[in-house]
Give the backbone structure.
Amino acid sequence: MPARIETFFLHLRNTYSRARLLVRILGLSRSPGDPQSAGLVLIQIDALSKKQLNAALAAGRMPFLKSLIQKEEYHLHSWYSGIPPSTPVVQAELLYGIKQSMVSFSFRDHVLGRAFVMYNPQHAAEMEDRLSLQGRPLLSGGSAYSDIFTGGADETHFCIATLGAAGFFKNRYPLVLILLHAYSLLRTALLMVVETGLAVYDFFVGLIQGQDLWKELKFVPSRVVMCTLLRELIVIGAGIDVARGLPVIHMNFMGYHEQSHRRGAASLFAHWTLRGIDDAVRRVLNAAQRSTARDYSVWLYSDHGQVDTVPYARQSANTIQHAVAEALKSVLAAPLADIKPVTEALGPMGHIYIGSSLPPDQHGAIAGQLLRAGIPAVCIRQSEDHVLVWTREGAFTLPEEAPRLLDSSVPFYQEMLDDFMALFNHPDCGDIVILGGYRGQKEYFSFALENGAHGGITSEEAEGFALLPAEIWPCSLEKGYLRPLDLHNHALCLLKQESCPVDRSAAAASPSNVLRVMTYNVHGCLGMDGCLSPGRIARVISQYKPHIVALQELDVGSKPSGGQEQASLIARYLNMSHHFHPGLQVQEEPFGNAVLSAVPLALYKTGPLMRHPMLSFLEPRGAIWVQAELNGRLIQVINTHLGLLRQERIMHAEELLGPDWLSHPDCKPPIILCGAFNALPGSRVIELLQARLNSFRDSIPRVRHRGTWFGRYPLMRLDHIFIGPGCRIIRIEVCDSYLARLASDHRPLLAEIEIV
């Protein structure tokens, strides 16, 4: 009854949420998916390196992201952006699966013979047309917010390639939006006032520090728009799209990116924006988790990092374009007017296009002049497999002496080197590539007027992060990091609900003599929000990566479950073997228990438990006995689900202790008995079982969450794990992630059991 009350109120809240009311009132289209269909929300925190994220977490500036890691079974992974580490390059790889599609944020296109700059809507649209012909768009049927490319999204808002925000306001009447989001809009207005005050203060600080007056003045409104207004509009729009059940939603929060360009990656003003982004992520994730339209998974990532830089023009009192022209004029024999060099340089990497082949005997002279102009490193392609590099420390060749240029200590060093070498074979690469810095250099230059930059070759620029639910475990993580293509492929698998080549059990990662055992009453895969979702149950299990899972109350092909065999669906998602026993009938449909395993498993016995003559009207109960193998040892595992009446439970406990089960000659140690016993610690049933077996109460006196029922507010421990001789419980927990609180009216109970 308490669980039904909570389910009712959750259903009421979801039914009459502001987002769903907007969908109905405005007549917005809904996705054809259902609550069991997979959905994906991708959140990009632009330019936040893993180093700066860790600093923000340690300083308490992103408390929600910290809680995801500590409490919600999210894992923080290293993310290699590719070379160059730039948003359009990353988004092309993530959204279309095409690596190194561009050589820089700004470059000269070899097809059209003119400059491409990715903040230009026409250039971005032309590049996306090419990407759509080569790759597989990730966002088909979904929406995109504040991106450079749309990824094939049906609905785009604030994206450069589609120029403008008109799509966001289409059919979304301002009056209705204001009425239903009055609090959010008032909050946004107040935040904008605060942000404006901070921006004005920062304006005067910038002037005192010698910043350019006009650029500082332009930065005030752009800061307020990017850091506050755009962020809040994205949150509102994403909430509406989640309520509509769009299959995939991608959004990009750019506040930190803009601030760090102006004040530096580690500046307090850049880190200030992370508080607002953290809260925005919280609201988007809560909306996705509460959605009854789809089974959403929320992934967070940063496209690349950002580093503190010194503007080259401020240091040398000259623009990079003029410095390059003067350097080339002093070396090349032809008049400068005939050569017409073009320098495209935004960030710490620039491309110089001469328009004709450079004589090899002049390479060194050209490099020398550029070094004297204050450029830290000059690179010229020698052959398909070799690049010549000049720095103040001397000349050397890549890839042989790459550690002189690149940080060889990072896990993605080899891939970074491969990408850097491949850059010189790209048709859009300049005849000369100049770098604002390299490994170990103290002063790092940007060729644009900015105090924070990206797009170069330092490891901090190339290392973003991916913050993923624990159940997301791509094969590529074996190398210690992810790159955008890995997430692209894994996202396509999730959206198509295909089986990915992933061992979610993580059996090999645990000590050889330790078995992770979970017991979980799944309530027919019916969650506290009223949504039926075997996939969500599987995601909960996958978060904790058990070796053996004892499940109770599984449906087999009934109408409520859409004709699905839930045990088979969950096992297939988890890449586990399984055995099922339909121990009872609910409304004439089979309902029962299963054991799933990531280690070798053999079914020994299934059977019903006795029915009391006076209680024959009650639902029949049963048990399933399997033998798991760990390092050549057979482990007896019995899974059961006892009845609701005390007298019946006592009878079943005595039967389980008898010769057909635990006292059977083949039931030799080690022994594990687990299940939903519907009995509290200290009850007669538990005392009977503890006379023969041990429970975690005997091994671990203090457990943070003792209750397993009901729902989000577990008051009672009805689920138990007992061990016999040959076993020792070394750790126990009641799973407490948001999904675990929502997916069933019971919480999973997980034990780490040492086989001795």
User: Anything to note?
Assistant: DSSP finds 25 helices and 31 strands in the chain. The CA atoms of residues 168 and 191 lie 21 Å apart. Residues 507-755 form a domain with the Deoxyribonuclease I; Chain A fold (CATH 3.60.10.10).
